[in-house]
Structures are given as structure tokens and as C-alpha cells.
Design goal:
Blueprint (H helix, E strand, L loop, with lengths): L7 E5 L3 H11 L4 E5 L2 H8 L7 E5 L7 H10 L8 E5 L4 H9 L4 E4 L4 H26 L9 H18 L3 E8 L2 H8 L1 H18 L6 E6 L2 E7 L3 H17 L14 E8 L7 H17 L5 E3 L3
Parallel strand pairs: 1-2, 1-3, 3-4, 4-5, 9-10
Antiparallel strand pairs: 6-8, 6-9, 7-8
């Protein structure tokens, strides 16, 4: 499987015997994690490395399994994880209810182990295929970083999260200086290689799991930095500026003689009425100031 040797299964079950049986059988092929209550399950399902599939017992001691399924399906971070419900109720109405809440399958106890394993394999294979297709739709074909579509989705969700948690969300708008002149002088193939090297360089320094780098359009990139204030975002932006300059990519059309970048930084604690465009516009305004200041520098938006 892409980027993983084994796919992972989160078992949400409070009966020790069932945990032991499921764990022993499934651990032969998959990485296994276990949660014995709904609260613990919600925490585990939101970890940086998400499970590929969830086996959820409907009868849980704290949160009803159907309610837990609904919460996982409504959560933007976990909604794409397939959930197989396990229950003692062999009724069409209950099965239909579980599927309506977002589950992909429904298994009745006592279950056949070969059938359960076969269903787990099938849904994990489908999940892998969906992940591959999704990966193709959210990455920029030239540079390999995320594309504008992914950025738009990310900034919207991060704004909502920052608003809920009242934390600072930072944005860095990045522009490759005098790139049109570079293309005119060296040709578009060289321009493509240049953008690839710049993107790789930026990605090396944007390393936190929650951060995102995307190609905004043309020679522009953007970095989304959750839980980051003006100061920390500016420190990172300066590192990016220095790192790109240190690539020493020759540029006859620049006064510095090499490829450089200009950057605009903005950071805000969003409120419920703040549109995403306000943060994007602030970073873009700071980027314009960086260009006006002579390029190859970082400017910070002060509202």
C-alpha cells in the first residue's frame, strides 16, 4: 500500500474476549489499535495518523455506537474512514439506520471470522483505491505539492477550527521573483524545473504535520500554518527566503543574479463572522508590500 507497509484498523469494543479474538485474527495482516469506550475512540480516531478502517461495536458503555458512528461521519477529519458496525441485532431496520449514519457495512454477532476478514479486506482495498484517486485530485501535477483546490478546502476548515479553539492561524503568500523574465530568458522547461526545485525547498522547511504547502497559481505558493502567530510565521518565512536564495539558481533577469522569493505573512484569531478571504487578502497585501520593498524579503500584515 502507498506510503504504508500495513493498513490500520481501529477496533472499538469493550468486551475483552472480542478484542482478543479480533486482534489476533486481524493483526496477521493489519496494524491494530483498540479503544474500549467511545470517548477514547474519538481521541484515537483524531490522531495525526488516522486508521484506515474502524470496527465499531454498537453496544458501548459511554457513547451509543450509532451516535459514535454519526460523530465520526460528521467530523471532517474522520468522515472518510470506513466504519463497519458490529451488533447483536439482526434486523433490517437497525442495519438501514446504521448505514444511514455513515457506516459502510454491518456485521451481526456471532460473526463468521472468514466473512469478517473478507469484508475488512474488501473495504480496505476500496479505501486504498479512493485514497489514490483523492491524492491525484489534490496535488499539483508539476511540483507535487498540494494544489489550489486543496488549499481552499484546508484554509476554510482551519479557519473554522481556529475560531472554535480561539487560536491563531497564519498564512504565508510566496511569489518567485521576476519569474516571467526567467521563463523568457531560459525557456518554459527550465521554468518548470525551477518551480519544482523551489517547491521541494519550501517543503523541506514546512515540516509540522498540520501545516500545508500549496501551489496557489503560476509562480505563487501559499503556506497554511495552524496554531501559529505573527512572530513564528515570520521566522519561518525568513528561513524559506534564505533557503531559496541559497539554492543559487542563476537568474540573469534579476538584479540579484539568482532565484529569490518575496513573502507576505498574516496571522489572525478568526471570529465566526470573519470570511476566509480576509486572511488571504491580508497575506496578499503583505506580499505586495514585499515586492514594493525590493523583493527577496518578508513583510508582515499589520491590520
Amino acid at each position: 500500500m502507498a506510503n504504508k507497509e500495513r493498513q490500520s484498523v481501529l477496533i472499538i469494543e469493550d468486551e475483552e474476549m472480542n478484542i482478543r479474538i479480533l486482534g489476533q485474527i486481524l493483526s496477521r495482516e493489519f496494524s491494530i489499535d483498540v479503544a474500549t469506550c467511545g470517548k477514547d475512540a474519538l481521541v484515537r480516531a483524531e490522531q495525526d495518523v488516522l486508521p484506515d478502517l474502524i470496527l465499531l461495536d454498537v453496544t458501548m458503555p459511554d457513547i451509543d455506537g450509532y451516535e459514535l458512528c454519526r460523530q465520526l461521519s460528521d467530523n471532517e477529519k474522520t468522515r472518510h474512514i470506513p466504519i463497519i458496525l458490529i451488533t447483536t441485532e439482526d434486523q433490517e431496520r437497525q442495519e438501514a439506520y446504521g448505514l444511514s449514519l455513515g457506516a459502510v457495512d454491518y456485521i451481526v454477532k456471532p460473526f463468521s471470522i472468514p466473512v469478517l476478514v473478507a469484508r475488512v479486506r474488501t473495504h480496505l482495498q476500496l479505501k486504498h483505491q479512493r485514497d489514490v484517486l483523492t491524492d491525484l485530485t489534490v496535488h499539483d501535477a508539476l511540483t507535487g505539492v498540494y494544489n489550489r483546490r486543496k488549499f481552499d478546502d484546508c484554509i476554510a476548515s482551519e479557519c473554522r477550527r481556529a475560531c472554535r479553539n480561539q487560536t491563531s492561524l497564519a498564512l504565508i503568500m510566496i511569489d518567485v521573483d521576476h519569474f516571467k523574465a526567467y521563463n523568457d530568458h531560459y525557456g518554459h522547461l527550465a521554468g518548470d524545473r525551477c518551480l519544482q526545485r523551489v517547491a521541494d525547498c519550501l517543503l523541506e522547511h514546512i515540516q509540522r504535520s498540520g501545516d500545508l504547502l500549496a501551489r496557489y497559481g503560476g509562480e505563487e505558493f501559499v503556506a497554511v500554518l495552524p496554531e501559529t502567530d505573527h512572530h513564528d510565521a515570520t521566522v519561518l518565512a525568513q528561513k524559506l527566503c534564505d533557503a531559496v536564495a541559497a539554492l543559487n539558481i542563476p537568474h540573469a533577469g534579476s538584479s540579484l543574479g539568482r532565484i529569490t522569493i518575496s513573502e507576505g505573512v498574516a496571522a489572525m484569531v478568526p471570529d465566526i463572522d470573519m470570511p476566509v478571504s480576509e486572511l488571504v487578502g491580508a497575506a496578499d497585501s503583505a506580499l505586495y508590500s514585499a515586492k514594493e520593498a525590493g523583493r527577496n524579503c518578508v513583510q508582515v500584515y499589520v491590520g
